[in-house]
């Protein structure tokens, strides 16, 4: 019987040294970030996931953002080559664990590709053009996944780190989207729920177990989702947001 796995990793005590691209560096309260992350894991468990914690990585500031290290599909796991050179050592321990569930393929130099830039909608993999993911990364991903019936579609966005900072999947045919950062016509045929213009970060939501996890502090987004019949769950994430982290960033979710 299959089970939904949510692979996570504890917040590193060196989180203050994280990579940043679009936000100014602020003091990060490690204890509060750790508490919020543990609450996030509890929310995943409440949504039916088996939470599997990877070994701690105290010397890797961004290691809590495990989504960037891999793309887990039904047939295969693709190990990423993160665009930030300081993050490339994070993939080893993830691969050591993932290989028990999936055969592995690897994105290799000179390619770069972050998992946060890959949005799966059925058999389509939308891949963002970002500073962390280059053309060769998208080409290699297409070469790896095409034999399994997937297609890779490149999309553009502005003003944020990853594609999934601007758009996430909340049902198989519905996207939560920040139309100020990404042109919605790139997702033809999808139902779109727009976040309010002042709630950019709310576009990074996590649909799991029939519910939608949304970062706390975005009432307009909650109202829009609730009015459409979504069951929403508020998750505090403001400390990791200082490290450019969102809700999808902090887990790798797949069926065992």
Question: What can you tell me about this protein's structure?
Answer:
It is a single chain. With 256 residues, the protein is an alpha/beta fold. Helix content is 20%, strand content 24%. The chain has five helices and 15 strands. The chain has helices at 30-46, 90-98, 135-145, 219-227, 238-241, and strands at residues 4-8, 50-53, 70-72, 77-79, 104-106, 118-121, 124-128, 151-155, 167-171, 174-177, 191-194, 206-208, 211-215, 232-235, 252-255. The strands form five sheets. A three-stranded mixed β-sheet has the order 2-1-15, with helices on one face. The chain has a three-stranded mixed β-sheet with strand order 3-4-5, with helices on one face. It has a three-stranded mixed β-sheet with strand order 6-7-8, covered by helices on one side. It is globular, with a radius of gyration of 17 Å.
Secondary structure elements and their pairing?
Blueprint: E1 4-8, H1 30-46, E2 50-53, E3 70-72, E4 77-79, H2 90-98, E5 104-106, E6 118-121, E7 124-128, H3 135-145, E8 151-155, E9 167-171, E10 174-177, E11 191-194, E12 206-208, E13 211-215, H4 219-227, E14 232-235, H5 238-241, E15 252-255
Parallel strand pairs: 1-2, 4-5, 7-8, 10-11, 13-14
Antiparallel strand pairs: 1-15, 3-4, 6-7, 9-10, 12-13
